[in-house]
Design brief:
By secondary structure, the chain is mainly beta. It has a domain of 69 residues. The protein is built from 1 helix and 5 strands. The chain has a 5-stranded antiparallel β-sheet with strand order 3-2-1-4-5, with helices on one face. The chain is globular.
Length: 103
């Protein structure tokens, strides 16, 4: 397990991701260490709890989680991954010197 960045790309409010899911809010997240192009669908509740932010305001928020980078989820789940986010916490802000100013 290694600590890696998880970025919320989009928030949705639809049906539950599976039969046992009570929360209908979900997020699309990117784990660049797993795939720089693929987004993963997962429940919004752990992200809202870790940040103290309502699910609707999570877009663009970065988190840290301890993930197995050698075992990413497969590509066969199209109804929403039931992913786990061990030690999920909001990432600290980027230092100003890391931010581009010429864009």
């Amino acid at each position: 397990m290694l600590t890696t960045v998880v970025t919320v790309l989009a928030v949705g409010d639809g049906g539950p991701l599976d039969c046992c899911d009570e929360d209908t809010a979900h997020v699309w997240v990117r784990v660049t260490a797993w795939s720089p192009r693929r987004a993963f669908l997962t429940g919004a509740a752990p992200f809202a709890a870790a940040s103290g932010t309502p699910a609707a305001e999570l877009v663009g928020v970065r988190f840290l989680a301890d993930l197995d980078l050698d075992d990413p989820p497969g590509n066969t789940d199209t109804a929403g991954e039931r992913l786990q986010w061990p030690n999920l916490r909001q990432a600290p802000p980027l230092p100003d010197e890391w931010k581009r100013t010429d864009a």
